Amino acid sequence: MTKDDSPVQFMDLKAQQARIRDKIEARLMAVLDHGQYINGPELFELEETLCEFTGAADCVGVASGTDSLIIAMMGEGVGAGDAVFIPSVTYNATVNAVLLAGATPVFVDVSHDTFNMDAADLAAKIEGVLAEGELTPKMVIPVDLFGVPADYPRLEKVASQFDLQILADAAQSFGGSLGNTRVGALAPISSTSFFPGKGLGAYGDAGALFTMDKAKGEVWRSIRWHGTDEGRKESVRVGFNGRLDSMQAGVLLEKLAIFPEELELRAKHAAHYDARLGERLELPTRGQGFQSSWGYYTLALDARDKVQAALKAASIPCAAYYSQPLHAMKAFAPFAPEGGLPVAERLAGELLSLPMHPYLTEGQVDRVADVVLNAL
Fold first, then answer.
1. Which of 322, 326, 313 is nearest to 372 (CA)?
2. Which of 96, 56, 37, 23 is nearest to 208 (CA)?
3. I need a surface site. Which of 2, 78, 252, 375 has the fewest CB within 10 A?
4. Burial tier of 265 (Cβ tally within 10 Å: 0-12, 13-18, 19+)
5. pLDDT tens digits, one per residue of 25-83
6. What would the mean pLDDT of 321-345 be, rounded to a whole number?
7. How far apart, in whole angstroms, are the C-alpha atoms of residue 55 and residue 185?
8. What CA–CA distance (Å, rounded) separates 166 from 69?
């Protein structure tokens, strides 16, 4: 083990900024010089570069990850009377987007092994909606929790059985992959967020949509600009202001240039955590061929509260994300399934995310692992 007593950051945006600050400043100065603060050349360069990175046929930059979900649903005609199936263990942006699109969320349980949507429960929830006959099943939105892609092959089998569209919520998994296919090309439509704390983050809110069908991209570009036509003279559909500004696009371009190296560093730290913790703990199942982006390193711990307290006492930051499943929250209680969601409710008391970013040292990972193991 390597000794390192320096302070541990949960995520370290300052170290990354120091590394590329001169390039970021040059990008921002270029925007100030040309003055195209909206729809500038940086946006088109970013969309093209993101397509090259993911293998998607088209990419549309938008103002936030939430906007990307709403725009995708609007583009598919999802609205009143439609059921959209989402996991209950995720950030509230997913369910808010469904409601803002006018549809009805149907909460699905997750797998305790992967934390992602459970395909068997998805099938059961779809059949339940059909049996009730009040809503039309329309779309499935799996969430790639903590960086690991959902099991899209299995989910696609269920969705296709009922003729449902899949929209991948890849807000946490950008940079991940399944086999040789990157996130962004794993589903017909994929959404991501570039919130500052994400693996690839802007210096403000930003997001993107990916598709293998360029016709969808053109619809999304219209919706993000108030539903106007290409010349922006006539409204041809309902839309809103969902644009990604030029400065954020410039920031993302410079961060994307070092992103592959940062992904390798995250994977290295995750492997080190695995090696230290795997002998005493049951690690999450990632599946053959699934590659996480390691936006977070998260465990399910029976002794979560004890471990969290020990880390706090050692001045090591951690986070207990999703300590309340969505269906248990006041705003979404009207949509809570009868009988609850047992796995989601169990994970609410178990999930704990440890420090994870490219600029950790081996000694810092060892120190975090020592505290976790000693607290068990």
1. 313
2. 56
3. 2
4. middle
5. 999 999 999 999 999 999 999 999 999 999 999 999 999 999 999 999 999 999 999 99
6. 97
7. 6
8. 12
Residue 1 has pLDDT above 80, yes or no: no
Beta-bridge partner residues of 82: 136
Phi, psi for residue 230 in degrees, rounded to 5 = -60, -35
**Average pLDDT, stretch 351-366?**
97
Domains and CATH numbers, the chain: 16-255 (3.40.640.10), 259-375 (3.90.1150.10)
103 torsion bin: left (phi>0), alpha (psi -120 to 50), beta (else): beta
In tens, the pLDDT along 67-124 reads: 999 999 999 999 999 999 999 999 999 999 999 999 999 999 999 999 999 999 999 9
- Under the banding of pLDDT at 50, 70 and 90, the label for residue 3 is confident
What pLDDT does residue 73 have? 98
Q: Which residue has the tokens 């779809």?
A: 126
Task: Give me the phi and psi of 182, to 5 degrees please.
Answer: -80, 155
Radius of gyration of the chain (CA): 21
Rounded to an integer, what distance in angstroms lies between the CA atom of residue 372 and that of residue 274?
A: 12
Integer angstrom CA distances of residue 83 from 60, 73, 96, 335: 25, 12, 14, 11
The pLDDT, as a whole number, for residue 4 is 83
Phi and psi torsions of 126, nearest 5°: -65, -45
Once rounded to an integer, what is the mean pLDDT over residues 199-211?
98
Find, among 171, 168, 206, 178, the residue nearest to 47 by Cα: 206
When pLDDT is averaged across residues 226-242 and rounded to a whole number, the result is 94
Identify whether the C-beta of residue 139 lies closer than 8 Å to the C-beta of residue 164: yes
Enclosing H/E stretch for 351: strand 351-354
* 19: three-class secondary structure by DSSP: helix
Instruction: Give the C-alpha separation, 70 to 67, whole Å.
Output: 5
If 0-12 CB within 10 Å is exposed, 13-18 middle and 19+ buried, where does residue 178 land?
A: buried
In contact, 173 and 292? CB cutoff 8 Å: yes
